[in-house]
Design a protein that fits this description.
With about 80 residues, this protein is mainly α. About 70% of the residues lie in helices and about 0% in strands.
Length: about 80
């Protein structure tokens, strides 16, 4: 009985050029998720991201240069005497 119904459904689909719902669902494009509705990150995930950023070569180099500049700045300020 179900086979007969499915055959009738298929005849109607063929007649009106309708696709099955399953095919429509698969063909539907995935929309980008709304950034306001995204899942909040846990503190562990935030810490892991911060650690990844620190491990980045460019960031390491930047931090190293900043510390050297600050050291030179303090040395120069120590040698300069304001009168």
């Amino acid at each position: 009985m179900e086979e007969e119904r499915e055959k009738m459904r298929q005849d109607i689909r063929d007649k009106y050029n309708i696709k099955k719902k399953e095919e429509i669902v698969e063909a539907a494009p995935q929309e980008e998720p709304n950034p306001l509705m995204r899942k909040k990150k846990t503190p562990e995930e935030l810490a892991a991201e911060a650690e990844q950023e620190e491990l980045d070569d460019f960031t390491k180099l930047k931090n190293q240069i900043e510390t050297q500049v600050n050291e030179l700045k303090t040395q120069i300020e120590g040698k300069c005497v304001m009168q």
